[in-house]
Write a sequence for this structure.
């Protein structure tokens, strides 16, 4: 991938992280395309097919993949409309899970940029560690990977698709009330 | 079940069974996966192997080390004492003296039907589930789902204002009642013409279409009352308004609750309705749920203040509607006179106190609908 594009994408993701940590959510929404799909799945606990702990009865139907599948329950599955509703909810002054607000820090690493299917698109892999501190002593770590589709719209990069994989089975944070 | 790990299987013969998920040799947790299919389970510690009907079939060095003196029939997996299902919902108990499931549910069965058997074929679960840990005592969500219509117009106003719900219990014209069919089971009901369904047009249209069929199937009670959320005592809760979910509140010590939550739809609902219900489940009641996240924050702080020696001794106020509930023969349940009341909080905690203090099941007072188990009469 062209070095300039990689650098641009990295800077885009860092700027996005800063907007989220500063709770500038309305500006963050502007970084998303109108047709954005924003999804967060979690992981389940499965034996690998090779495990000697079980005697698989029906190998053809055995599900080894531990990631939430399309069409199943996800932690988030949002459109621009519902993300905007979520941001509007935070602004009502009655969104108690964020009142007082979380203090988040998005650490974005392992950024890889690949050509997309269209000339104005790139596929981007990244890892994240998000620290959330709230009230006096609440703290949570959200760790996982993202796969983004970025699209250049009128000269600016926008997020057209974001797939977030949270590396937990039982989510140990009491909620997901911030964005990733 | 409670803090005990349980393994639920359908064995090779097709029978559903439930065992402690504990190897009988050293007490290791036997099965580590949350779903799958297998004929046997082999313990990761020393390799004891059990068939999916619970029988112990493999013990390494049985001849050399145990001299064939181990009675394998005695050391199969430990089964629950009673296992039964109501319309596909499986319940179990470790207590052989406990009443049967039908006795235990009593009149709650009709209310379960209003969630899980509204149409021919019943319901199905959308794939996947939500699992997370809430830092609160399990009784807070249990009482909230079964009786707290009062919190909605304040706790959830942000989600109602931003169109995540029809906000039925926030509207002054809404009717309904807080209803308990006995044995600690509790539900919030709105009136038959009050619409609390998830606010997607596909779902609202579908509900309108199937209503005559549902009323016919559920009978005359459905013309009087519309159960939208409830708790089957003690920790199984269900919801039809805003989202379609049922969940188990697993206690994890006094201060934490592990939620296992599913989203369900009528089996015969068309695909676009099922899809809308799936999305409503993700957006309304889940770790990211625009309703659920605000509840959790409040329950956490209710739990934390209970750590204080003095705070713990302080009486909380559950007097709302006291003396204004009555037994309604048409509903076969205790019912409040207004759509908000703490009558169900009182039902729930009275039941809890009875079970915590009774020496045996015979000493547990009966409430409405519980005529079995050697008892006669009603409370």
């Amino acid at each position: 991938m062209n070095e300039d594009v990689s650098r641009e994408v990295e800077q885009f993701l860092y700027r996005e992280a800063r907007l989220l940590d500063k709770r500038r959510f309305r500006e963050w929404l502007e970084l998303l395309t109108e047709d954005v799909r924003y999804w967060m799945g979690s992981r389940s606990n499965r034996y690998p097919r090779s495990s000697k702990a079980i005697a698989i009865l029906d190998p053809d139907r055995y599900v080894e993949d531990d990631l939430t599948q399309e069409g199943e329950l996800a932690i988030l599955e949002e459109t621009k409309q519902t993300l905007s509703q979520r941001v509007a909810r935070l602004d009502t002054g009655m969104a108690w899970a964020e009142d007082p607000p979380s203090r988040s820090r998005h650490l974005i690493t392992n950024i890889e940029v690949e050509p997309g299917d269209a000339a104005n698109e790139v596929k981007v892999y990244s890892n994240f560690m998000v620290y959330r501190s709230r009230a006096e002593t609440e703290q949570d770590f959200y760790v996982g990977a993202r796969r983004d589709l970025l699209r250049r719209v009128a000269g600016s990069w926008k997020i057209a698709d974001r797939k977030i994989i949270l590396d937990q089975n039982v989510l140990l944070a009491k909620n997901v009330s911030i964005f990733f | 079940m409670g803090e005990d790990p349980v393994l639920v299987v359908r064995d090779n013969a097709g029978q559903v069974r439930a065992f402690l998920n504990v190897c009988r040799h050293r007490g290791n947790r036997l099965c580590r996966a949350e779903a799958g299919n297998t004929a046997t389970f082999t313990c990761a510690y020393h390799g004891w192997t059990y068939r999916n009907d619970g029988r112990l079939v493999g013990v390494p060095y049985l001849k050399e080390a145990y001299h064939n003196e181990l009675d394998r029939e005695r050391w199969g997996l430990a089964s629950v004492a009673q296992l039964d299902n109501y319309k596909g919902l499986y319940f179990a108990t470790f207590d052989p003296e406990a009443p049967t499931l039908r006795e235990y549910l009593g009149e709650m069965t009709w209310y379960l039907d209003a969630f899980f058997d509204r149409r021919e074929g019943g319901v199905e679960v959308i794939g996947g589930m939500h699992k997370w840990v809430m830092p609160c005592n399990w009784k807070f969500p249990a009482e909230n789902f079964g009786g707290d219509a009062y919190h909605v117009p304040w706790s959830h106003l942000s989600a109602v204002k931003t169109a995540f719900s029809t906000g039925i219990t926030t509207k002054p014209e809404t009717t309904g009642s807080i209803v308990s069919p006995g044995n600690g089971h509790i539900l919030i009901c709105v009136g038959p013409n009050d619409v609390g369904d998830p606010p997607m047009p596909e779902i609202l249209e579908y509900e309108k279409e199937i209503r005559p069929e549902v009323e016919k199937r559920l009978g005359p009670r459905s013309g009087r009352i519309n159960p939208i959320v409830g708790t089957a005592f003690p920790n199984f809760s269900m919801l039809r308004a805003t989202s379609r979910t049922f969940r188990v509140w697993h206690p994890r010590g006094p201060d934490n609750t592990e939620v296992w939550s599913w989203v369900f739809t009528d089996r015969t609902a068309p695909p676009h309705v099922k899809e809308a219900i799936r999305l409503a489940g993700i957006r309304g009641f889940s770790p990211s749920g625009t309703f659920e996240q605000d509840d959790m924050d409040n329950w956490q702080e209710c739990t934390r203040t209970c750590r204080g020696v003095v705070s713990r001794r302080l009486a909380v106020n559950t007097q709302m509607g006291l003396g204004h509930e009555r037994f309604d023969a048409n509903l076969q349940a205790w019912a409040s006179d207004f759509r908000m009341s703490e009558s169900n909080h009182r039902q729930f905690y009275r039941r809890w106190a009875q079970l915590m203090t009774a020496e045996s099941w015979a000493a547990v007072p009966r409430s409405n609908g519980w005529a079995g188990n050697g008892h006669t009469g009603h409370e």
Residues 238 and 246 of chain B are 4 Å apart (CA to CA). Residues 1-80 of chain B form a domain with the Rieske Iron-sulfur Protein fold (CATH 2.102.10.10). Residues 369-379 of chain B have pLDDT under 50 and may be disordered. Residues 201-218 of chain B form the longest helix (18 residues).
